[in-house]
Amino acid sequence: MEVLIKRIANESGAVPPMPFYATPGAAGMDITANITEPLLLKKGAMAKIPTGIAICLPDETCVAYLYARSGLGVRHGICLSNGVGVVDSDYRGEICVGLINLGPEDYTIKPGERIAQMVFAPVLHGDLTEVSELPESGRGDGGFGSTGR
Questions:
Q1: How far apart are CA 107 and CA 97, in angstroms?
Q2: 53 by DSSP, 3-state: which?
Q3: Are 41 and 101 in contact (CB under 8 A)?
Q4: Fewest CB atoms less than 10 Å from the CB: which of 52, 85, 86, 129?
Q5: Which H or E run contains 54?
Q6: CA distance between the termini of the chain
Q7: Coil, strand or helix: which one is 149?
Q8: How confident is the model at residue 138 (pLDDT cuts 50, 70, 90)?
Q9: In angstroms, rounded to a whole number, what is the distance separating the alpha carbons of residues 35 and 9?
Q10: Contact predicate 80/119, CB 8 Å
Q11: Helix, strand or coil for residue 147?
Q12: pLDDT digits (tens, 9 = 90+) for 50-80
């Protein structure tokens, strides 16, 4: 799938590296912080980090999802503030990543640091049909924790 990408220089004129797959088996491309100086993310704080990239997906059947990098999340508690970022096929602006520090200590984000991963996926649009009752299932309406641990 061809994805068009535009790199955007930050205030100091630095252009970010192209997103990249860290290994041949990686599902997500690493994207970096396109900031000019280190940014202190205090514990419990949130920040919107520019990446210096904008993309054009082929059509409305595609989406780009932004996920936390597992190392940042597990080691430092740095996660996406919105859980998962969604880059719609018709969005052409700079991709920014909302981060939150859920860890026990402040964390400094460095210029060029890998802050998220971008995964491309197909999109299915549903045609909703309103009904008065839904078909039965083995689970029924059992919610949180109803299927065991």
A1: 16
A2: strand
A3: yes
A4: 129
A5: strand 53-56
A6: 38
A7: coil
A8: confident
A9: 10
A10: no
A11: coil
A12: 999 999 999 999 999 999 999 999 999 999 9
| The 3-state secondary structure of 83-139, one letter per residue | CCEEECCCCCCCCEEEEEECCCCCEEECCCCEEEEEEEEECCCCCCCCCCCCCCCCC
Entry pTM = 0.90
Instruction: Identify the H or E element spanning 73.
Output: helix 70-76
Reference 58, options 2, 129, 16; nearest CA is 2
Instruction: Give CA–CA dist 54/8, Å, rounded.
Output: 8
Six token digits for residue 41: 């993310």
30 CB-contact burial (10 Å; exposed 0-12 / middle 13-18 / buried 19+): middle
For residue 145, the number of C-alpha atoms closer than 13 Å in the C-beta half-sphere is 0
